[in-house]
Amino acid sequence: MPNNNQLSIITLNTWKCDGEYRVRLRLMTEGLAAIKPDIILLQECFTAPKSDANTAQHLAETLEMNGFFQPAREKQRVFEDKEVNSHSGLAVLSRFSLDPIGAIQLPSDPEDGQRVAQFVSVKTPGQPVLVVNTHLSYLPEAHDLRTKEMQRIVTRIREDRDHDTVILGGDLNATPDSPVIRWLTGLRNLTAIDLAEAGAKNQAGATKLEKSGDNKGKALKRIDYLFMIPRKRTQRFEAVSSDVVLDKPDPLTGLFPSDHLGVRAVLQTVPAAA
């Protein structure tokens, strides 16, 4: 972190083992190493016990960051032409020390189960920040389910008494005008600041790449988010910038690091009142 008064945070859905996994993992590693974020929220982190593939562990070790992995969505997946038992989980990485608080099970549908939210205390300078990392249901019409999942997360956030600042992020599978986002940002007794909007010079960027058709390789929808939830009237941070990252294809292979772009927000410490 070049400025000790700033905090750089990224969220990225890593796309399990799909596509050319080994190449994509290299591109993710190189891209994140160039950006040097302080905190990374990862979703769809692939790991298979009978292979050497472990997205979160590889990124943590290569980027020399502390990391905590939360297994989720255990199932058989095809990896390098073989069916393997695997997880598509969550991970929080940070250059600061971490204190894993745990995870909560979210309401689910039999067609899309094992959704969880991960809670990690990140020991940022001054006071720790609570990082909440999640991946909500992907079912297209499951608007009520995603709202119930978010309500469960917010209930747990309200129970926390140890952090003045909460960073809530991940792949919410919902556009800004969807019911779950409107519910979260419309709460009267809890302020959820959309950091992509708060820090954007123009419009917050789309994050989900199209895989086929005329728009293949273009991001048309914004479904990945970083929210800041200040727990006291006096905010500790304010958003100074935001953008999408890992948004260019590799010039040699034409591949993107993932089928999602990363969302980056840079926060600035708010000076204490005299």
Query: What is the percent of helical residues?
Result: 10-25%
Rg is 18 Å
> How would you state the average pLDDT, rounded?
94
- Please, what is the oligomeric state? single chain
Q: Largest sheet, described in full?
A: 7 strands, mixed
Number of strands: 15
How much strand content do the residues show? Answer: 35-45%
Outline the low-pLDDT stretches: none
Q: Termini, distance in Å?
A: 26 Å
CATH superfamily: Endonuclease/exonuclease/phosphatase
Could you tell me the CATH topology label. Deoxyribonuclease I, Chain A
The helix/strand series, from N terminus to C terminus, equals EHEHEEEEEEHEHEHEEEEE
Count of DSSP helices? Answer: 5
CATH architecture: 4-Layer Sandwich
Q: Which CATH class?
A: Alpha Beta
Summing up helix and strand content along with how strands pair, one would put the structural category as: alpha+beta
Q: How many domains make up the 3D coordinates?
A: 1
What is the 3D shape? Answer: globular
